[in-house]
Design brief:
heterodimer, A: mainly alpha, 6 helices, 71% helix, B: mainly alpha, 0% strand
Chain lengths: 141, 145
């Protein structure tokens, strides 16, 4: 448990390296919601295949690492209502705001984008308030 | 073809990073957001760690107009703070806190997240398909900006 932050830092460096590759080689901003969302609403156009193979990489590496890595448990809730409500909010919200933790957070803040910083402050505050309300006041999570 | 290979490599780094960082564990995400509970600092290390290579990458990207493969680099960021950015981010944050999952980790944990992640991803994709309609409505609420 104490070395969790080290794994966090290593993982973060890997995430940033992926983003650096995607920017410098492919010329694109690595934002998960933009990549997924543009495939869903059809705005990906001729970048469709580039985005699909990117997502294939995101799915495949954990499959390869799973057997050799320490125990990973996502602890996902089995509350159907929570999952559906959260999924809808994340889906609609990230597309309206045009970014999520990777696009606005990692890629936006590192280029000192005002929109990235404002978005990150908003979703962290909303997430924090959400956890307080749903966990401590309502006890649903 | 090269673009596809490098997109796959970038996705691989992203997926591997999300996996080893613990960001596919909802308790670590909610633990970070829960300042009144047993606060878990991991997410800050992940975000900080990810920004180091990205900061360097932007340093080089800002000096060029095209990527290594000749595609145009992203334009300068807009500074426009509109209600779509704020409302969308607040909605996203609420959902993120509720389930502890954001878009990247939802895809990275597809192979081991079980039924819960399928339901979440299905709802997220539905939300993304509905977003253009919500966006149009929000645009209409703003008189000619």
């Amino acid at each position: 448990m104490e070395q969790d932050w080290i794994w966090g830092l290593i993982g973060g460096l890997l995430i940033g390296t992926g983003g650096a590759f995607y920017l410098l080689v492919n010329g694109r901003i690595m934002g998960a919601s933009g990549i997924i969302g543009s495939l869903v609403d059809g705005s990906a156009g001729d970048t469709k295949w580039e985005k699909l193979v990117f997502l294939a990489g995101v799915v495949l590496l954990p499959i390869l690492l799973y057997p050799v890595y320490r125990e990973v448990n996502p602890h996902i809730t089995d509350n159907l209502y929570v999952l559906v409500a959260a999924g809808l909010l994340v889906g609609v919200g990230t597309r309206i705001a045009n970014g999520c933790t990777s696009g606005h957070g990692v890629c936006g803040i590192s280029r000192l984008s005002v929109r990235g910083i404002v978005a990150t402050v908003c979703y962290i505050l909303a997430g924090g308030v959400g956890v307080v309300i749903f966990r401590h006041l309502l006890g649903v999570i | 073809m090269k673009r596809l290979i490098f997109a796959f490599i970038a996705g691989g780094f992203f997926g591997a990073g999300l996996f080893v960082s613990g960001m596919t564990d909802t308790t670590k995400v909610q633990g970070w957001l829960d300042v009144f509970g047993a606060w878990d600092p991991t997410l800050a290390f992940v975000m900080g760690g990810a920004m180091i290579p990205m900061f360097i990458a932007w340093f080089f990207a800002n000096k060029r107009t095209t990527s290594a493969l000749g595609t145009p680099l992203p334009p300068k960021p807009s500074n426009k703070i509109d209600r779509k950015l704020v409302i969308g981010s607040v909605m996203f944050g609420a959902g993120w806190g509720l389930a502890g999952i954001c878009p990247g980790p939802s895809i990275a944990s597809l192979s081991y997240g079980g039924t819960g992640i399928y339901i979440f991803v299905a709802a997220m994709l539905t939300g993304m398909a509905l977003a253009p309609f919500v966006r149009t409505r929000l645009d209409k609420m703003v008189p000619a900006e």
